């Protein structure tokens, strides 16, 4: 595995590989790698000649009071895991290199951000599409891999690629879970022992919502109220439920009657970490 830290070096390597007729799979991450990231690498290796993984904690997608400075980082461990997984290029640019020029152009997401995480994190997805635009240009991938745990990010990245004609296929990968059902996340390490015991309630609440749909419930409000009530009971007073929503998938449109493919999504704020999860039901 080769580690690249400079934008220009990354671009020249990718250009050489593409000119030689090889395909590139790209896995963008913010590091502190876990099984979910490695599942993306596995898919990318299956589909492509070379795999690039980026590790970059993007300051533009953290709002005021969010955990940019305390976001978990472990460069040595990340390099070891990436190499063991079969990553060919580990791209680890600095903030100064990625954003060396004062911005005169701003990318802004105008749809799909008034719900789910976007409703309480203004500007977050503007930062996501900004950094991905840069990373797509620098790595020139044939395919880029995103976990469905962050279903809103997947929908917005898909829209970015379609609307701006990026020559890259966005590949969704199912959420990887712990044996308890808890979706694997870099932020899980910040949970207290008590919170870690409560956290599987997120996935169980989604399974409850799915069960209601399978049994014939079509009123979205009934399902949302049932799922939220379950979370309130299981998590207790010291844990805040940010949202429970049911939307169409993959367009994330509001609905009152469940029909076709939908996503049930939840977000919960523990004292030390905010967790999200979702389940897609057809």
From TrEMBL:
Reaction(s) this enzyme catalyzes, per UniProt: (R)-pantoate + beta-alanine + ATP = (R)-pantothenate + AMP + diphosphate + H(+)
Enzyme class, spelled out: ligase
Keyword Repeat appears in the UniProt entry: no
Key word ATP-binding present: yes
Catalytic site: 37
Binding sites annotated in the UniProt record for beta-alanine: 61
Entry's localization field: Cytoplasm
Major subcellular site: cytoplasm
EC number: 6.3.2.1
Residues that hold (R)-pantoate according to the record: 61, 153
Record: residues binding ATP: 30-37, 147-150, 176, 184-187
InterPro entries with a match to the protein in the record: Cyt_trans-like, Pantoate_ligase, Pantoate_ligase_C, Rossmann-like_a/b/a_fold
Keywords, in A-Z order: ATP-binding, Cytoplasm, Ligase, Nucleotide-binding, Pantothenate biosynthesis
Pathway it works in: Cofactor biosynthesis; (R)-pantothenate biosynthesis; (R)-pantothenate from (R)-pantoate and beta-alanine: step 1/1
Note: The reaction proceeds by a bi uni uni bi ping pong mechanism.
Biological role stated in the UniProt entry: Catalyzes the condensation of pantoate with beta-alanine in an ATP-dependent reaction via a pantoyl-adenylate intermediate.
Assembly mode: Homodimer.
Family according to the record: Belongs to the pantothenate synthetase family.
HAMAP family on file: PanC (MF_00158)
Annotated protein name in UniProt: Pantothenate synthetase
Gene: panC
């Amino acid at each position: 595995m080769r580690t690249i830290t400079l934008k220009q070096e990354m671009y020249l390597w990718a250009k050489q590989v593409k000119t030689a007729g090889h395909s590139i799979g790209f896995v963008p991450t913010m590091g502190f790698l876990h099984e979910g990231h490695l599942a993306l690498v596995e898919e990318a290796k299956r589909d492509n000649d070379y795999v690039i993984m980026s590790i970059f904690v993007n300051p533009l997608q953290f709002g005021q009071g969010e955990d940019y400075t305390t976001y978990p980082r472990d460069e040595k461990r990340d390099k070891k895991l990436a190499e063991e997984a079969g990553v060919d290029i580990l791209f680890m640019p600095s903030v100064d290199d990625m954003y060396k020029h004062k911005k005169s152009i701003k990318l802004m997401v105008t749809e799909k951000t008034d719900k789910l995480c976007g409703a309480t994190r203004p500007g977050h997805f503007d930062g996501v599409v900004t950094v991905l635009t840069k990373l797509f240009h620098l790595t020139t991938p044939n395919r880029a891999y995103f976990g469905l745990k962050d279903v809103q990010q997947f929908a917005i990245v898909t829209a970015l690629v379609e609307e701006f004609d990026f020559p890259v296929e966005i590949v969704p990968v199912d959420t990887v879970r712990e044996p308890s059902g808890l979706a694997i996340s870099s932020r899980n390490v910040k949970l207290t022992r008590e919170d870690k015991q409560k956290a599987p309630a997120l996935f169980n609440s989604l399974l409850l919502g799915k069960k209601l749909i399978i049994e014939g419930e079509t009123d979205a409000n009934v399902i949302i109220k049932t799922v939220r009530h379950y979370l309130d009971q299981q998590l207790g007073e010291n844990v805040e439920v940010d949202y429970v929503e049911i939307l169409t998938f993959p367009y994330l449109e509001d609905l009152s009657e469940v029909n076709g493919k939908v996503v049930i999504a939840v977000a919960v704020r523990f004292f030390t970490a905010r967790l999200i999860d979702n389940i897609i039901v057809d």
